[in-house]
Amino acid sequence: MTPARKTILLTGKNGQVGWELQRALAPLGRVVALGSGELDLADGEAIRRAVRETRPAVIVNAAAYTAVDQAESEAALAHAVNGAAPRILAEEAANCGALLVHYSTDYVFDGKKTGPYAESDPCAPLGVYGASKLAGEQGIQASACKHLIFRTSWVYGSRGKNFLLTMQRLSRERETLRVVADQFGAPTWSRLIAEASAQVLSQVPRHPSPDSLWGLYHLTCAGRTSWHGFTQAILDLAPPPRPPRLEAIPTAAYPLPAKRPANSVLSNDKLQRAFGLALPDWHAALALCLDASG
Ligand SMILES: NC(=O)c1ccc[n+]([C@@H]2O[C@H](COP(=O)([O-])OP(=O)(O)OC[C@H]3O[C@@H](n4cnc5c(N)ncnc54)[C@H](OP(=O)(O)O)[C@@H]3O)[C@@H](O)[C@H]2O)c1
């Protein structure tokens, strides 16, 4: 008899990472994918109902309040979705014995470190979004549930709201692009995050001591660049008909409601040691993404 396929409950199915996860998780089980229309993560009771009705073996939480600047004036909602909801998911996961996979952000750091951040480095978020995501991590860690938290950074892909698509649009509309050159990080393609997550999940059942795996991992593309460097690569790899002039500006010349870390490069060593997985360099990944989008 064919063994029953396990159920994977996926939130945020319409997001950059969630959309890619629908495909990447499909070989691993029966994916029950929900968007905000089917499950509002600001509604704690709705979260508990969804988990109890689905009885998943794995919960993958790709939903988040990701509007970094808007969060400064919508702190309660950001904390409900990013802070409280993951804790409730973790409690429900513990109740039904499910594994919880969750995503967090480089914006938990203040950016003052000169080298790449390790998972053990102290967090000091500069804004509401980072603080709300850190609260989510802590809620999961304080629970008794089996969990994998993946901190990623500068996510882009072929759909959704992201820097790549914004720059491609602006490069068609404007003669000059003025882009911040003093914030450093690792742009990371949403598809690679989803595929690495699925690979990790496929390793868990075969691992001799899966309990040793639970915890926090950094999961980003390798290398580092600035937003200006990222824009230059976008223009080089997929030049628009009339390429705009690209100007490097300091953060101070582009004030936004939320402060960003000057350095949010994450070390991926722990992920590589635990699972033998490493994402490619950000530039190679961008080329793959642009190739895939035609
Ligand atoms: N984007 C980045 O640059 C970045 C950087 C570092 C870490 N991350 C983290 O990576 C993960 C995935 O991010 P992403 O870029 O894929 O985000 P995204 O494209 O903004 O998608 C987030 C999804 O969350 C859903 N959502 C928002 N509020 C919700 C609510 N109240 N109830 C239920 N669903 C809600 C939205 O659903 P609907 O579309 O259905 O409304 C949206 O599709 C998140 O944990 C994020 O914090 C992202």
Annotate the secondary structure layout.
Blueprint: E1 7-11, H1 16-25, E2 30-34, H2 44-54, E3 58-61, H3 75-96, E4 99-105, H4 128-142, E5 146-152, E6 155-156, H5 163-173, E7 176-180, E8 184-185, E9 188-189, H6 190-203, E10 215-218, E11 225-226, H7 227-237, E12 245-249, H8 269-275, H9 282-292
Parallel strand pairs: 1-2, 1-3, 3-4, 4-5, 5-10, 6-9, 7-12
Antiparallel strand pairs: 8-11
Helix pairs in contact: 1-6, 2-3, 3-4, 5-7, 7-9
Bound molecules: NADP nicotinamide-adenine-dinucleotide phosphate.
NADP nicotinamide-adenine-dinucleotide phosphate (NAP) binds near residues 12, 15, 16, 42 and 103.
Helix and strand element order: EHEHEHEHEEHEEEHEEHEHH
Determine the mean pLDDT: 96
Cα-to-Cα separation, first versus last residue? 43 Å
Q: Tell me about the biggest sheet?
A: 6 strands, parallel
- Count of individual helical segments: 9
Number of strands: 12
Which runs of at least 5 residues are low in confidence (pLDDT < 50)? none
Question: What is the CATH topology descriptor of the domain at 7-153 and 189-222 and 265-279?
Answer: Rossmann fold
CATH class of the domain at 7-153 and 189-222 and 265-279: Alpha Beta
Q: Taking Cα atoms only, what radius of gyration do you get, to the nearest Å?
A: 19 Å
Task: Give a list of the ligands.
Answer: NADP nicotinamide-adenine-dinucleotide phosphate
- The CATH superfamily of the domain at 7-153 and 189-222 and 265-279 is identified as NAD(P)-binding Rossmann-like Domain
